[in-house]
User: Which sequence fits this backbone?
């Protein structure tokens, strides 16, 4: 069975209400064959135009489909829109419009037309209604999301770069402080080593002084002892060789002298 065609005429210069009826949950079995007019003159369609159908379902969810997704085609200056099941998922009136984007950047919107979605008798096949974006608009939204995500990533990277730079500066300062401490510690060690060497030399000199002093005292004691011994020997010798002065000593003998008696 061929798809059912719904002929719709849209005029950019009037606001006539266009309405067609399609059964709920139909899927790619209905085609909207749309002819465009400008002040009652039929428009000749340009293949370079980007044509998008935009619709709002009764539950306020959105439909955006375009030619790139295969849901819109051009034949004999007519725009053929294949109606998706998602467009017909909710019973009630669907508000639709066409958007035409020209290569020069100009954008045109058609009059609003309506699809009345007649509810199914059996609701067991009812499809859950969701948004449907199958168009350049969806792609642009994705691009915007990617741009926002990229911007956030850039900001995150910038923040990370700042934190890394701050951390690097802190680390550099910490390394400098550590180097200074190491240098001071080396100086302390060198000073302590020098102090210990000087203290060792002092101790050695003190030990030598004490030894020299002890030796000198011992030499003095030995010399004193030898002197005492010599004096004693001399006294003993003199005692044995001399006698007291006689009564016949000369009268002119100086006091304190003795006569020597020959043996």
Assistant:
């Amino acid at each position: 069975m061929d798809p059912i065609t719904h002929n719709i005429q849209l005029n950019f210069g009037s606001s006539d209400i266009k309405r067609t009826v399609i059964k709920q949950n139909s899927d790619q079995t209905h085609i909207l064959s749309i002819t465009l007019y400008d002040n009652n003159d039929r428009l000749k369609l340009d293949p370079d135009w980007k044509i998008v159908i935009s619709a709002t379902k009764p539950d306020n969810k959105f439909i955006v489909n375009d030619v790139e997704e295969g849901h819109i085609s051009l034949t004999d200056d007519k725009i053929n829109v294949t109606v998706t099941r998602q467009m017909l998922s909710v019973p009630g009136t669907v508000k639709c419009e066409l958007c035409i984007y020209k290569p020069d950047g100009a954008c045109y919107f058609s009059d609003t037309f309506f699809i009345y979605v007649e509810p199914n008798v059996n609701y067991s096949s009812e499809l859950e209604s969701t948004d449907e974006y199958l168009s350049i608009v969806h792609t642009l939204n994705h691009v915007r999301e990617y741009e926002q995500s990229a911007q956030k990533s850039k900001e995150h990277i910038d923040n990370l770069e700042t934190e890394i730079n701050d951390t690097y500066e802190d680390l550099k300062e910490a390394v400098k402080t550590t180097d200074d401490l190491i240098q001071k510690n080396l100086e302390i060690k060198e000073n302590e080593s020098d102090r210990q060497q000087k203290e060792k030399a002092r101790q050695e000199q003190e030990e030598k002084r004490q030894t020299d002093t002890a030796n000198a005292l011992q030499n003095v004691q030995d010399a004193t002892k030898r002197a005492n011994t010599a004096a004693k020997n001399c006294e003993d010798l003199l005692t044995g060789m001399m006698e007291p002065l006689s009564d016949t000593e000369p009268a002119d003998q100086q006091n304190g002298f003795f006569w020597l008696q020959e043996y």
